[in-house]
Amino acid sequence: MVHVQPLRLAHTFGVPVPLVHSSAVLDGWLGMLVEDLGLAVRDADDLDGVAAAVVLHGTRTAAALPVLDQARLRTLPSRALEHLARLRMAERWQDADDVEDALDRMTQAAEARSAGTTVAPFGWVHSEFHPTSLHIGQHGWRLLDFASAFTGPGLLDLASGHGTLDTPDPVRLRVFPEQYGTPDALTRRGGPTAETLALGRHRIWAMPPYIRAAIVTLAGSGLHIGELLGLKLSDVDFKSGTIPVERQRLQSCLIGPPKTAKSRRAVPVGEVVTDALLTHLAARPSREWLFMMEEGEPLNYRRWKTEWNCARKEPQKAENEAAEREDRKPVELPHMVTHDLRHFFASALIAGGASVKQVQLVLGHASAVITPRIYAHLWPGEEDRTRTVMDAVFGVPRAGCGQSDRATGETEQVAGRAV
Hints:
Elements: H1 4-12, E1 20-26, E2 29-34, H2 46-57, H3 70-89, H4 97-113, E3 122-125, E4 134-137, E5 140-143, E6 150-153, H5 155-160, H6 170-178, H7 194-205, H8 210-221, H9 225-229, E7 242-245, E8 248-249, E9 255-256, E10 265-268, H10 271-283, H11 301-325, H12 339-351, H13 356-363, H14 370-375, H15 382-394, H16 409-418
Antiparallel strand pairs: 1-2, 3-6, 4-5, 7-10, 8-9
């Protein structure tokens, strides 16, 4: 079970974690009664992280945990090439020579780059090892959020302590492996130093390809993030291009009903979304949930938040780098949240001429009153409609509407000169 099994295993092996007194699953809902840790006395810092990492990575691993060893890492590029070949056989991703070339180079280097994967620290990996995963109380520290634990290179934990969202800092990270008291922790792996490889691996780990499919799906369907996380593979009708909303994943990772009765709906999606999902499923097959993490568990809120924060910072990073090259002041891009993808979807529908009722239905608003209250400013006013209608009658093209079939060649010529 999500959360329960890793927590109990960790407690059994002596890792300081909250004690699970009891748990039960009823109709897909998970309930846990855990130890009350009280209020934190302070925030965790790097030294706390080092102490927790040494204890965790020195703990005997459990057979129930997924394994990410050298063999698994070495085969990732070749597995990606196989999936790409299947997509091309299905007449998809035909224009992907650059992707194939990159994967070819990665496959050739996979043997060397995966070398040293099992060098210590290798063992129990938390995978979301950052200050918020450590509770510092009156009676010491406790590690939280073990839902994504696996067996693998401990350097991934060390990097995630500070290197996921902030600028990579190899010097700061080197302090972590230095505290293990063994030369193995600082051994070069696959060529780079331990700290450089750790940051590189984790930043690749921090933005796996399936997140792109999730972002495309959100932008192309208007789903709430909880509705997306609650999708099962069997929900998506690829033939008709429809995604029914029957449930949502709560922030507690439990499954619950949609927000309102109107939230139960069938959302039509285009080929951009279905292609993204098919590509995602070819690379990461699933038997139940549509979006699964590498560790074999369904994608949850906590991981999504981490992935989204990484993704949204990349455009600003690219803009800053471009501004530096061009010797200009960078443009400050707006801060985006996941819900903005839903607004994007609604705005695109309205720009395409969708009615208030249609937008309400696909967004799942409880009342048609809610929809114009949020998006009224995006619908054209009566004066705009009048101009558009009369211009269409006379064959004058306007932004956002096509040329009238009644337009004469002379009218088209004049319009062409005007443009």
